[in-house]
Design goal:
A alpha/beta (about 120), B alpha/beta (about 100), C alpha/beta (about 130), B: about 100 residues, alpha/beta, 5 strands, C: about 130 residues
Chain lengths: ~120, ~100, ~130
């Protein structure tokens, strides 16, 4: 089955991004496809390359990056929400790309299920 | 047509779970995750409400979130199933849509 | 063009608004999402329940906040062929509001009807 995921919150204030990551990992392990993960609202902050969490904490950004590398998951950051919050092309960690909100709607159309994680 | 509803906030803090239960249809599923898992434990002020809901919808709670909060999966309300992320994926697939009550 | 690109699929989308405006950014950014979705020729439904009904309360004046008052945009949705706006009666009642307090034409439905409508959707987006 083809899943689309929407992440509404940033990496460390809320558990949303972690829950989304665990869901995506479990879906891939079961042989499902993650068509796209779309980052909107403060969720765009998940894409920053400047995040350096303490070494004894999980690295939310790296988790997403690894998922993208290992499974070719499309990680899309909303351009408008990113601009508001200072997330632009030059702030992106590898594996993320910036595009329009239309990519989220397209995900809703193309995927069998859309799953949202937020606050 | 059925929906998997997800709720991630404690009913003691926000109205998400209350609103979700008021809008769930017979045969829908409701998954409690993150801070909402506190609602799944027996003996709370919300337990009667959840026991009632379990007659109409399939109620589940994410075990990982229970354990993280020091809550014993053995102490969940009768009729609430403790599940893992893999089961969460299965439920998302088994229902027609997923509605996150944020 | 969109139709060809998307293979002519038309799904029932619902945007569920349950939060008041200005205290958080969700109302505004959901509205931006709704506007974009108009370009995709989908069957769009916009639901207002719980505190979401404050998003379309008449007479919003944000001058002293310094925020942009985006509430007139809800009236512009019709121009984008987004005409299925639903408000839950019980949510109005709980807040001492009536349909006359709303700034845009909507269909007021009961909580039971809202629940049934949600059950008919293919994609439900919330924030």
């Amino acid at each position: 089955m083809k899943f689309g995921i929407l992440v509404n919150e940033g990496p460390y204030n809320h558990q949303a991004s972690d829950s989304a990551y665990q869901f995506a990992k479990a879906a891939l392990e079961k042989g499902h496809e993650i068509f796209r993960v779309f980052f909107y609202y403060d969720g765009v902050l998940n894409a920053t390359k400047h995040s350096e969490p303490p070494s004894d904490d999980r690295n939310v950004i790296k988790n997403w990056q690894k998922l993208a590398e290992d499974h070719k998951v499309d990680l899309v950051v909303c351009v408008a929400a990113g601009l508001r919050r200072g997330i632009v092309e030059s702030s992106l960690a590898p594996g993320f790309r910036i595009s329009g909100l239309g990519q989220l709607i397209e995900s809703g159309i193309q995927c069998d299920r859309m799953v949202t994680f937020g606050d | 047509m059925s929906i998997l509803h997800t709720v991630n906030k404690s009913p003691f803090e926000r109205s998400n779970l209350d609103s979700c239960l008021k809008h769930a249809n017979q045969g829908d599923s409701v998954l409690l995750l993150e801070d909402a898992v506190v609602a799944a434990i027996a003996g709370t002020a919300f337990a009667a409400r959840l026991t009632d809901a379990a007659k109409m919808v399939k109620l589940c709670v994410l075990g990982a979130d229970l354990k993280a909060r020091g809550l014993d999966p053995a102490k969940v309300i009768d009729g609430v199933a403790v599940v893992d992320y893999a089961a969460f994926v299965d439920m998302a697939a088994a229902n027609n849509a997923v509605h996150a009550w944020l | 063009m969109e139709e060809d690109f998307e293979g002519g699929i038309v799904k029932k989308f619902m945007y569920v608004n349950r939060k008041a405006p200005y205290g958080t950014v969700y109302a505004l950014e959901v509205l931006e999402m709704v506007l974009i979705s108009a370009a995709f020729d989908q069957d769009v439904h916009v639901a207002f329940l719980d505190d979401g009904i404050y998003q379309i309360k008449k007479g919003q004046d944000t001058k002293e906040l310094g925020h942009k008052n985006f509430s007139p945009t809800y009236r512009a949705l019709e121009g984008y062929d987004i005409e299925k706006l639903y408000v839950e009666q019980e949510s109005l009642d709980e807040r001492g509001l009536t349909e006359a307090d709303l700034l845009v034409p909507v269909e007021v439905i009961s909580r039971a009807e809202m629940a049934k409508l949600m059950g008919e959707m293919d994609v439900i987006l919330t924030a």
